[in-house]
Design goal:
The chain is of the alpha/beta class and 147 residues long. It has helices at 28-36, 42-54, 62-69, 79-89, 116-125; strands at residues 19-20, 57-61, 93-94, 97-101, 111-114, 130-137.
């Protein structure tokens, strides 16, 4: 065996390709708002969701999204992750992820406002899966009310 021939022996077979919709589904925004209501007041939530709607779609790697959010990889048998893995295996398109920017200087992680299970399922296919995201800051333009 030549010196570099053994390199491919331990290479992992790539998982199925993950296909994505061009834009998040309409129902993703209310789901994001429900989560964000735990982090901000009504005005801040509304402004953040609008910023997510207005944000362009960009791309980030699955492993980087999880790291930036400081979240653990959910197990494959989590019902929502398993459902998304089945969609991936069937070639169905997933909805892009809605992500709220963190603040590294303040020690605030990014927040996956909608799409945590999709990120985990995509990671299982390949940690370097390129995931379409919409990224916006958490708005401080709240109206001062609480939920």
């Amino acid at each position: 065996m030549a010196r570099n021939e053994h390199k491919d022996v331990h290479k992992k077979d790539p998982g199925p390709l993950v296909f994505w919709l061009q834009q998040p589904e309409d129902q993703d925004y209310p789901a994001a708002a429900q989560y964000l209501a735990l982090l901000a007041d009504d005005g801040g939530v509304a402004a953040t969701v609008q910023a997510l709607r207005d944000a362009p779609v960009t791309h980030q790697l699955a492993k980087d999204i999880l790291r930036a959010a400081g979240l653990a990889l959910l197990p494959r048998d989590n019902p929502h992750v398993a459902s998304d893995l089945a969609k991936i295996a069937a070639g169905h398109k997933l909805s892009p992820v809605l992500l709220v920017r963190g603040n590294m200087a303040a020690g605030v992680p990014a927040h996956i406002a909608d799409g945590y299970h999709r990120v985990c399922a995509s990671y299982y296919t390949d940690e370097n899966t390129d995931i379409p995201i919409k990224l916006a800051p958490l708005s401080a333009q709240g109206d001062g009310s609480t939920r």
